[in-house]
Design brief:
CATH superfamily of one domain: P-loop containing nucleotide triphosphate hydrolases
Distance between the termini: 51 Å
Helix content: 25-40%
Radius of gyration: 19 Å
Number of helices: 10
Largest sheet: 6 strands, mixed
Bound molecules: adenosine-5'-triphosphate, magnesium ion
Order of helices and strands: EEEHEEHEHHHHEHEHEEHH
Structural class: alpha/beta
CATH class of one domain: Alpha Beta
CATH architecture of one domain: 3-Layer(aba) Sandwich
CATH topology of one domain: Rossmann fold
Number of strands: 10
Shape: globular
Length: about 260
Amino acid sequence: MTLIEMSGVGKSYGAVSALHDVSLSVHAGEVTCVLGDNGAGKSTLIKIMSGLHPHSCGVMTVDGSPATFASPREALDRGIATVYQDLAVVPLMEVWRNFFLGAELTAGTFPLSGFLSGMKIKDMKRIADEELRKMGIIVNDINQPIGTLSGGQRQCVAIARAVYFGARVLILDEPTAALGVKQSGVVLKYVAAARDAGLGVVFITHNPHHAYLVGDHFIILKLGAAVLDKPRAEVTLDELTTQMAGGEELAELSHELGR
Ligand SMILES: Nc1ncnc2c1ncn2[C@@H]1O[C@H](COP(=O)(O)OP(=O)(O)OP(=O)(O)O)[C@@H](O)[C@H]1O
Ligand SMILES: [Mg+2]
């Protein structure tokens, strides 16, 4: 099932062309990986899907009909949830409150929004604890500030929250960028769990190894255009790594540095 389809999408910020002629599909139960160097246009691409910026040209369809979102709220109401690296949680707030924080954003047509207002604090704590355990995130105390969790665990709480509140598309902007190997592993398992639960996942990363561990389809952006666009069956980790390594740039740099 195709949830989002982008065709020939472009985006300019004034005179800066950040994205041109990019096509991409998000399917239920699949992970679409978007790779690329700094400034390649990755965040711009997902900001169009998540309603932060309108696209300048091309077509985006959601559930088969053309869509342009005027706000992130509109995207959320269609089940498109985005987890940003830094904005995912409020560090000083308790874990359980962070878990339900997303619900304020989902007062629209999300399935569970109605019953939330009547829910008791005790129930919210229990549900947050159960949902996190279900996904293998064990926190000592659901009342501890979320800032006391590791970066990987915080990402996972944000993802668990989106899944619980009925997201159909989960967009993750570099969820493993600031994490070590072990914590990245936790997040990657979580990405796989979201996919197995039937969500369409868009996974943004610099890291071809991380992408290859969970990806079903791979797009590499360079200067706003796709330089690689292949399903898993047609691409190797080596090919992704080579494309991402920027061999020419490295050779140039090594020449400049005399090494
Ligand atoms: N709000 C904006 N106004 C003007 N230019 C922007 C804006 N946002 C992004 N750009 C430009 O668009 C291009 C793509 O930026 P984008 O943030 O999408 O890249 P990215 O692939 O996410 O990079 P990174 O890996 O550093 O996060 C860059 O040249 C950037 O300077
Ligand atoms: Mg970015």
